TrEMBL record:
Source taxonomy: Bacteria, Pseudomonadati, Pseudomonadota, Gammaproteobacteria, Thiotrichales
Organism listed in the record: Thiothrix lacustris
Keyword Transmembrane: no
Any one Gene Ontology BP term: succinate metabolic process
Main location: cytoplasm
Pfam families: Sdh5
Subcellular location: Cytoplasm
Protein name: FAD assembly factor SdhE
Cellular component annotations (GO), alphabetically ordered: cytoplasm
UniProt keyword terms in alphabetical order: Chaperone, Cytoplasm
Family: Belongs to the SdhE FAD assembly factor family.
Keyword Cytoplasm tagged: yes
Amino acid sequence: MNEAFQEERMIRLRWACRRTLQVLDRPLGEFLKDCYHNLNLSEQFAFERLLSAKDQEILDWIIGNRESGDAGIRAIAEQIRVYNDRVTEGHSHE
């Protein structure tokens, strides 16, 4: 992908990470900033599919109250959960 396209895609994704449910803004935004570039293409697409869901569904998937019927979304929600737990633990020890 060319650089301009990639830059535009990241801008779109940053906006998509901004949610009505503010509790999701930080986990999604931080995951995008710190982890997205390390995901393979199918994981990136799964993250984008996750972002197209309703806020409450995303929250339920990330905190583990429900599972998506989409295996890719289940896997990416688990990665977000693990990443967020690790980041949150790091902040609590400061």
